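[stage:ingest] chain + small molecule (coenzyme A)
[stage:ingest] validated
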Amino acid sequence: MTLVETPFTARIVGCGSFLPARLVTNQELAQRVDTTDDWIVERSGIHQRHMAADGEMTSDLAVAAAREALDHAGLAADEVDLIVVATTTPDQTFPATAVRVQAQLGITHGAAFDVQAVCSGFVYALATADNFLRVGQHRCALVIGAETFTRILDWEDRGTCVLFGDGAGAVVLRAEPTRPGGPGLLSSRLHADGRHHDLLYVDGGPSATGTVGHVRMQGREVFRHAVANLASVVTEILDGHGLAPSDLDWLVPHQANQRILSSTAKKLGLAPSKVVITVGQHANTSAASVPLALDTAVRDGRIQPGHLVLMEAMGGGLTWGACLARW
Ligand code: COA
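[stage:predict] done
[stage:export] C-alpha cells:
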C-alpha cells in the first residue's frame, strides 16, 4: 500500500482515562470463582481489575475519560465535531454510546457513532477518525475506547471471567496542516478474518437470540493467532515507513495477557523495556486497553514529544490492526 500525503495530519493533542472505583483483586475473585491468584498471575500477568458499579454505564466511563482528555488538550467540548466510541458493551443496542457521550458533553453539532471491533476497537476507531481528519471533513475528534466488559462475562467460566475488567480511555485528535517529519498519526493498518468467529464471540445478540449473551473463547487458539497477527501487522506498518522495530520508542499494545505481550515483543526483537504494560493493574479492558495504557505512559512522562509510538491490538472477529504516531 502506498502512503498518500494528505492536506491535514491528525495529531493527538490530549489523552485521558477513567477506571471505576471498585477494585477486584485475584484473591477476592478466588472467593467466588474456582481459581487462584497464582494461576491467574502465572497464565495472564493479571493481579486486579476494576469493575463498574450497578448503574454505572459505558457512557459514564467514556464521558469521564473524554473530559480528562479535553482538559489535557486545553480544549472546550464544543470544539469537538466528531466522536467515535469503540465499545463492545454499549449502554443500549441503540442509539450509539457515542451519541450519549455527545449529549453528556453538551455538544450538539458534528457526527457521533460507535465502532465495534471488540479488543481492536480503539485502533479501528483511531484509524477511522484519522481518515476523516486527514481529508478535512472534520477538524477535532474525540476517540474513546470504553467498556463495561464484566457485564458480559459468564462467572461460571473460569477460563474467561478472570481475564477481563472495565474502564475507558480517550484521545483528542486535531487536524493540523501536514508538516513532513512533524507530529501526528503517520498511518494505520487494519485487518479482519471472519472465518475465526468461533474462537472468540458472545453467544447472544439482538438478532441472533434477543439476549445480550456471554463471552465464549478458545483461549489457546486465540493466543496463537494473537502473537502471529500482531507481529505481522507491526512489521507491515513499519515496513511501509522503512522503519525497523528498533526505531520505535514505545509499543503500546492491547493489554490482553502478559504472555502475549512478551511473546510478541520477542518475535519482533523489541526490547521489553519499550513495551507499555498495564495488564497487571487493569486486566483486559477490551477497546479501552490501548488508550488506558497510552494515557498511563503519557502521564508518567515516558512518552515525550518526537517519540515514535506504535499502538496495536487484536480481538474477536478476528480483527487486528496498528496505528503509528509521531508524538
Ligand atoms: N483458574 C484455575 N484453573 C483454570 C482457570 C482458572 N481461572 N481457567 C482454566 N483453568 C484450568 C483449565 O480447566 C485446565 O485444567 P485441566 O488441565 O485440568 O483441564 C488448565 O487450567 C489449563 O487450561 P487452558 O485453557 O489450556 O490454559 P492455558 O494455558 O491455555 O491458559 C488462557 C488459558 C486463557 C490464560 C490462555 O489460553 C490465554 O491467555 N489465551 C489468550 C486469551 C486472550 O488474551 N484473549 C483475549 C484476546 S483479545
